[in-house]
Amino acid sequence: MGLIFKIIKFEFSNALRSKWVIFYFSFFLILSFLMFNFEDETGKAVLSLMNIVLIVIPLVSIIFGTMYVYNSNDYIQMVLCQPLDRRSLYFGLYLGNAVPLALSFVAGIFIGFVFTGADTAGITPVLILTINGFALTLIFTSIAFLTAIKFSDKARGLGAAILIWLMLAVIYDGLILFVTYFFRDYPIENIILGISLINPIDLARIFFILDFNISALMGYTGALFNKFFGTSLGVLVSAGLMILWFIIPFLLGLRSFNKKDF
Amino acid sequence: MIELKNIEKSFGKYQVLKNISLNIEPGKITAIVGPNGSGKTTIIKSILGLVQPDKGEILFNNKSVIKEYLYRKDIGYMPQAASFPDNLTVNEVFNMISDIRMQQMNGNAELINILNLQPELNKKIRTLSGGNKQKVSACIALMFNPKIIILDEPTAGLDPAASANLKKKIVEQRDAGKTIILTSHIMAEIEELSDNILFLIEGKIVYDGSLKNLVELSGQAKLENAIAAMMNKEFRWD
């Protein structure tokens, strides 16, 4: 355990000096400041922020995470020559990458929120937004780590990471539209429900929307989710599935890392 | 002290190590030589646990060390091409490794001095030249007073003064009872430093014994010619 903290400590001091994290923090700070300033209702501002978060966080986390593993390759080799087990190193690297990213997002949103003082609907929606963003950072960093460890070639790994993001963030919506349109005469609800389970971005969206019960914004998968599970169970199921989306890639990545030759 | 038993390793279709068994003699300098791609670095990395063999055993003080890590506190390693986190300074890297190893730096001031690394200590790794990074790496390999020192092409990229000083240091360490494994493509260097030779061709050991014996066996006056003779397929050992 002590060794994990040592790695995290170095990773943190490294991350704090990197311009990337500061840029990422400023991005969310400015965004949050503008949104809370220009929208009268906190709920609306949070909703707009959520739409940006759902695209930006997965993209930045997956690209930053993959690049980070590739760029740390020599460093990993150096540390692995020391009396340190691979599991501690993996945990340390993961947390040292995901936590600064997640925290700079949370800090950016909250500071922007506090400074504008727009709190008509209280702080709850902002909290749910940040929990969601935090979870997405963890999920996409663990997918990024798995991708980067599986592909030894940097160009291919980065390509795969971008493709995964593209599939989940963009192509997925088209797929849902395509399926519902073409099979509109058939009872395909269960299939659509099944498809929505395999997309962490959609799960995050459903989790967020169900929490607010804004049916107009639920979309097809959200509405199905609501109908099938009900609101409170729907929140639990989407949250549980998101946790799986974090744990499974994380453990697969750890397993590959343990077997990898450096 | 270090023993490899029937080690096999493939990368994809390409078999790099073919049934390697060897025993590193303690308190001596063993040089691993062979053409490019003969498996020298793979052997070293297997000992360190960076590469995991497909088959076979690696014993360290008669205990298997595959998937273990604590044994590495007795090993100092200088890789072929060193790289460290870019944002840290040299001193910070030293402290970090000291922190991970939970060992005090030992005789580091002298090492920094003989390698002429003093002016670089507070510079960030990013700004260091390749040779200076090698020096940092050499310091790390030696400064925790490890029982075993593994050096992968230690003098490649070093200036003549640093190279000479490092070689002197290596011999000093051997005389202090350390076990040293090194690789090099400079035959004069191997002749100067090593007691034992491990000669690899295409992942097989073709010679494992003392330097003297090798030169005698080949009937050549110089190691370079002896090695060249061995690479020639006509060469017979009997």
Verbal overview:
The complex is a heterodimer of chains A (262) and B (238). By secondary structure, chain A is mainly alpha-helical. Chain A is built from eleven helices and no strands. Chain A has one domain (2-259). Chain A has helices spanning 2-17, 19-38, 42-71, 73-80, 86-116, 124-150, 154-182, 189-197, 200-212, 219-229, 231-259. In chain A, helix 5 packs antiparallel against helix 6 (124-150), helix 6 (124-150) runs antiparallel to helix 9 (200-212) and helix 9 runs antiparallel to helix 11 (231-259). By secondary structure, chain B is α/β, with parallel strands linked by helices. Chain B has a domain at 2-82 and 147-231: 3-Layer(aba) Sandwich (Rossmann fold). Chain B has eight helices and ten strands. Chain B has a six-stranded mixed sheet with strand order 6-7-8-3-9-10, sandwiched between helices. The longest helix of chain B has 16 residues, at 160-175. The mean pLDDT of chain B is 87. The A-B interface holds A 3, 6-7, 10, 13-14, 17-18, 72, 74-75, 77-86, 259, 261-262 and B 11, 45, 48-52, 69-73, 75, 77, 79, 81-85, 87-88, 96-97, 99-101, 140.
Strand percentage of chain B: 25-35%
* CATH architecture descriptor text of the domain at 2-82 and 147-231 in chain B: 3-Layer(aba) Sandwich
Structural class of chain A: mainly alpha
Uncertain spans of chain B = none
> What is CATH's topology name of the domain at 2-82 and 147-231 in chain B?
Rossmann fold
* Largest sheet composition of chain A: none
Total helical segments of chain B: 8
Structure classification of chain B:
alpha/beta
> What summary fits the major beta sheet of chain B?
6 strands, mixed
Distance between the amino and carboxyl termini of chain A: 23 Å
- What is the oligomer described by this structure? heterodimer
Unreliable runs of chain A: none
Cα Rg of chain A: 19 Å
What is the end-to-end distance of chain B? Answer: 30 Å
Strand content of chain A: under 5%
pLDDT average of chain A, as an integer? 86
